[in-house]
Design brief:
5 strands, 3-stranded antiparallel beta sheet, alpha+beta
């Protein structure tokens, strides 16, 4: 799960696997597969980086 911040400052944890769409309009709107929508402070690039970091930490590459 990744941590995002709503416009009012409250924190929410989102299962990044269930993000269907993220769009900047200019606020960032994250739409989940179940249709729930969240307006967050993070940019799309920040959400991508948080998702990538979560995956790196959760599923390290074994060499």
């Amino acid at each position: 799960m990744i941590q995002l911040t709503r416009i009012n400052g409250t924190v929410l944890l989102v299962n990044e696997k269930f993000i269907e769409i993220a769009e900047q309009t200019p606020d960032t709107v994250v739409t989940m597969q179940n249709g729930h929508r969240y307006i967050v402070k993070e940019t799309i690039d920040e959400i991508i980086e948080k998702s990538a970091q979560f995956r790196r930490e959760s599923f390290p590459v074994i060499q």
